Amino acid sequence: PIKVSKILCIGAGYVGGPTCAVIALKCPHITVTIVDLNKARIDAWNSPDFKLPIYEPGLEDVVRACRGRNLFFSTDVEKGIREAELIFVSVNTPTKKSGVGAGFAADLNYVELATRQIAAVATSSKIVVEKSTVPCRTAESMRTILEANSKPGCHFDILSNPEFLAEGTAISDLFNPDRVLIGSLQTPEGKDACAALAGVYANWVSPAQILTVGLWSSELSKLAANAMLAQRISSVNALSAICEATGANIDEVANAVGYDSRVGPKFLKASVGFGGSCFQKDILNLVYLSESLHLPEVAAYWRQVVEMNEYQKRRFSKRVVDTLFNTITGKRIAVLGFAFKADTGDTRESAAITLIRDFQSERALVNVYDPQVVEEQIWLDLTEASPNVPLDSIKKQVKICGSALEACRDAEAVVIATEWKEFKEIDWSEVYKHMKKPAFVFDGRLLVDAAKLTEIGFKVNTIGRPGA
Ligand code: NAD
Ligand code: UDX
After folding, report:
1. Cβ(44) to ligand 1 under 6 A?
2. pLDDT, tens digit, for every residue of 407-459?
């Protein structure tokens, strides 16, 4: 079997960074180099005081244990390619913004550029692993590009090894994955390459959890997993609308349904809408794939999961306006949380962005606080959400605050957009004292104890429950 001693990862982002740092930790005999074109990002990974470019619980400890030992971060992509035996391609694959498939298809430009660079630079055979989430059969395009551009004597094997980590729990997900999925061609060479990668994971993952399948199944499984996870949330969110209208309680409904062992209790939490860089992008990708395959009913089915999510966000901002006596013009709204979920500083597709944009267009004043998201990121997201509004005008309406308490001062309503634990634990009596009356709380995350807050004096509106 092929022995792997040098691994390269192209792309030092939310996936490449944590994934390959954990490989370095669990495989001290393997040298792992992570490269990126973005120098600022690499500098942050290399920063002497470990101010890493992404916030992820437990990540710093892993990097501290390996950096400079068998884990290296660099911008020298070419050197990395030449030296490695196995290369992860972990670059971004965002939704295309223009051209064919705009708004749906994955932009494979970064994957292709990385692939072409591997072909151009490699002077020995490599195993090339698709880590990025890509449409079904991308591995075939990669193989064609590599074979058409390779030097004599260089052979490339392509594997698909999608990543299932969730942000906020990346390190524990990587330490104890539900499964590791490796797809390969079912040829002797393909199977050998697959065994080589499986051998890397076998340093800490039990063989029963390493699934080896065909390339196309592996690629499609990743889109399928995200689509089915997101579909659960959209299902529960659709039911939350019925709960609000009928007096049922979504927590009780989800709990009752989840008790069925065929459904299971996890991932049934109603919310203001799912966010994150993956769900929407991957479903739209699946919709596009279905349409390209002339399967319009399949496409429409999955598209509805994203549409329900958009509806949920719209419905929530409308509820805020309706409850505040049909106008929020000139009123101060505190938005607690800007990240797309707790324990991350990532804001991609965060529901908070949509809510704040909606409040802005109602001419409200918004105070926002998030414990991890940096200020520049908030301004960047808000300008992108309202491209016709200059930043100066946005800044007249939106204020970024240093604490939850500060954000809630003089507000008419508090909107909980992210389930940060600290929002559960703030001194709500203190918050109440400094708010305008009646003081409203809109809990978009089923986070706070509605009964306790009502006792303090708040009018509490929780997702999936009738309003106060
Ligand atoms: P990211 O944007 O955080 O990181 C990608 C990095 O690749 C960027 O830093 C970019 O500068 C770099 N890059 C792009 N082209 C390059 C090139 N040619 N050479 C060197 N560096 C290059 O993205 P991410 O969140 O890490 O996602 C990466 C992939 O993993 C995507 O396909 C995504 O769908 C998938 N994925 C993401 C998650 C997640 O939770 N974020 C989970 C599973 C899968
Ligand atoms: C997701 C997948 O879980 C992961 O397997 C894949 O590799 C990448 O995409 P991520 O987006 O990081 O991970 O976080 P996840 O925990 O799945 O949450 C996504 C969004 O759904 C968040 O906005 C979260 O708040 C929301 N969510 C999650 C709910 O609204 N309700 C739930 O029950 C669970």
Report:
1. no
2. 999 999 999 999 999 999 999 999 999 999 999 999 999 999 999 999 999 99
SS (H, E, C) 382-397: HHHHCCCCCHHHHHHH
pTM equals 0.96
pLDDT tens string 98-138 = 999 999 999 999 999 999 999 999 999 999 999 999 998 99
**In the β-sheet with 71-74, what is the strand arrangement from edge to edge?**
71-74, 31-35, 6-10, 86-89, 126-130, 156-160, 180-184, 210-214
End-to-end CA, the chain = 65
| Pocket around ligand 2 at a 6 A CB cut-off | 163-167, 226, 229, 233, 267-269, 271, 274-276, 278-279, 340-341
* CA 359 vs CA 101, 309, 335, 354, 428: distances in Å: 31, 18, 10, 9, 23
E strands present in 126-190: 126-130, 156-160, 180-184
Annotated catalytic residue, options 20, 66, 243, 278? 278
Which tokens is 318 given?
């409308």
Tokens matching residue 433 = 């004292």
Check if 278 is active-site. Answer: yes
Which segment of 134-138, 183-187, 332-336 scores lowest on mean pLDDT?
A: 134-138
**Which DSSP helix (H) or strand (E) runs through 414?**
strand 413-416
